[in-house]
Amino acid sequence: MAAELVQLYDTVGPRGVGALDTARTVAPITRSDERLLPVADEFAPLLAQPGIVRGSVLATQGPGALTLATALAAEASRAGGWTAAVGLGRMGISAVAERGASLDRWAFVDHPGDATAEVLNALIGSVDVILLAGSVRMAAAHSRRLRARLRERGTAVIEVAEPGPARQHHGNAFSPDVTVAVERAAWTGLGQGHGRIRARRAEVVAAGRGAASLPRRAVLWLPDSDGRITPVRGAISTVGFDRPAPVDLSQAGVDPTDPSVTFLPQRRAG
After folding, report:
1. Residues pairing with 156 in the sheet
2. Angular region, 28: left φ>0, alpha ψ -120 to 50, beta rest
3. Are 10 and 77 contained in the same domain?
4. Which of 28, 30, 121, 196 has the greatest number of CB atoms lying within 10 Å of its CB?
5. Claim to verify: residue 202 and residue 85 sit in the same structural domain
6. CB 45 within 8 A of CB 216
């Protein structure tokens, strides 16, 4: 399997080629009979079990979906596991590092193109977590076959919704078992057209099938002013959010036209 993975990396993109040496030693971190992959403590209130179930599919949606997915996967790499990002060329290496992930255990396949099903087939069972762009589409037959392989080999998938106004949801490559969605988000540090973005406060809701059918909520800094994902202490899920400030955030990677994104006003001294 590792040889097959290396051969695929030779054809799928520059960051995939950069992962060639480490890809030769890809191996899941735990035995297949260990059902859960670890997650950071801040995500415990959101998941029905204290980790990501092997062979399952999660989906992240809303503002900060990529940050959320990266943070969910980071603990597995810190524990010695492998993560592969597929179709996420917009993912920055520094952002992965800021989430606390171990970069020497991440592989990147930026543009799988028509080889998506073949790339996923090689990765399943060779890595612990796959982050998959929500824009990826596959034939139904490929999706069913790969979903069965996920369950058999114990690799988990986190599908990441596309950002911006064009991120219309037309269905996932895999039907998710759990969807983790940022329902509302607010950037702090901004005044009326001035100030610096310091942190993003987000209300996150997780719901899905079976044990996850009852929605679970948490209010998180996504991230806080130090770049970490942490709970908002003392917060409740029905917090009030102010109207957007009229500022241009395009250089910060923020979509100000997204109706679910608002901004907390900057507090003035005195």
Report:
1. 129
2. beta
3. yes
4. 28
5. no
6. yes
Residue 52, token pair as written in the block: 């990501």
Say which amino acid occupies 38: P
Strands 230-231 and 216-221 turn out to be: antiparallel
Q: How many helices (H) and strands (E) does the chain have?
A: 7, 12
Question: pLDDT band at residue 17, thresholds of 50, 70 and 90?
Answer: very low
Q: Which stretches of the chain are DSSP H helices?
A: 2-12, 14-18, 20-23, 65-78, 93-98, 116-123, 140-153
| In a shared domain, residues 167 and 196 | no
**Total domains in the fold of the chain:** 2
Q: Are residues 172 and 186 in the same domain?
A: no
Per the prediction, the chain carries an average pLDDT of: 75
**20 shares its domain with 92:** yes
**Three-class SS state of 84:** strand
Instruction: Report the CATH number that the domain containing residue 164 is assigned in CATH.
Output: 3.40.50.300
What pLDDT, on the 0 to 100 scale, is given for residue 204? 93
**CA-CA distance, 262 to 233, in Å (whole number)?**
20
Residue 238's domain spans which residues? 182-265
Same domain, 17 and 133: yes
Collapsed DSSP state (helix, strand, coil) of residue 249: coil
Q: Between these two residues, 64 and 265, which has the higher pLDDT value?
A: 64
Phi-psi category of residue 195: left, alpha or beta, with phi > 0 → left and psi -120 to 50 → alpha: left
